Sequence to fold (347 residues):
Amino acid sequence: MDFGFGGFDSGFSDFDTELEEFEVKKVKKFDRMWRCGFGGSILNSPLVHEDRIYFGCCDHNVYCIDLCTDKEIWRFPTGGIFYFSSPVLLEDTIYMGSYDFSMYAISLEGKEKWNFRTGGEIFSTPLVRDGVMYFGSKDSNVYAIDMNGKEIWRFKTGGEIACAPAFHGGRIYIGSFDGNIYCLSSEGKELWRFRAGQEIVCCGPLRIHEGIIYFGGMDNFLYSVNAETGKELWRFPTGDYGNSSIPFVHEGMVYHGCRDGFLYALDRKTGREIWRFKCDGGITGSSPVVVNGKVYVSDESGGVYCFTLDGKQAWKTTIEDGSWGIPAVWNGRIYYGSKDCHMYGFG
Fold:
């Protein structure tokens, strides 16, 4: 079973359910068991597939590492760093966007199949549905391309796009630096837009659960919006510095990390705060995840935390210089990339 950013099917629509089906061995203390260094910071989220881990690095390379031997299998060079765009696997191909303006299709042997060039850097992780890839670019466009790298359509927003697209009910949802959440048809037609107070700078896809969109904005609010109509259901005031992390939904609760360093637990239906915990650093890009009844999150200071569902800290460990990505879970370990140029495995 593969695990990476956004779930198993490259769709960003059922991440919560998939994690519940994944077993992580129970440990009293979370010890670091694996560490591997590279030539640049690792800011995106890794993908694990058949004993191999794939990720992009700020040294401009995509890496494939054997998790059993810790040996590099291959690296694929590009012309730019990899920021928040994370690898997506479909059949025998890895897809990933680079700061060199290009979306790459790479074989599992590390060979380029094609690349598609946009007019700006690519922060956005691609979404693949029904033979079409969707992603955003800093040129303000949402792109739809076929699996041979040919453009089908593009949709112009009013600002740069860092957010990854999400899919629900045959529609595409994506946020923009212009402060809007856009709902698009699969043909690229705007169905509605929702205006937040400031930029939408999600480091991944909007969280959609049972027809409700959950996301944070740089206006210091966490929002709940109806995916069908675009109507706001509630908003929750977070602390200063805005929101760029992705909420996680589990059993009637929304868990959300904020750049002010707080991990919030809210009632999903009402937005009422149940508990909060102050981490040592801001939670910039790392989404909380719930695995086997525990909440995991990392912060910019290097802290990796485990909480019970009622907000009690079970343990904490550290990685140097902090993590911005969502972890990958495989074979009893949780994998984080770090700004200190290392990939860490815990378990």
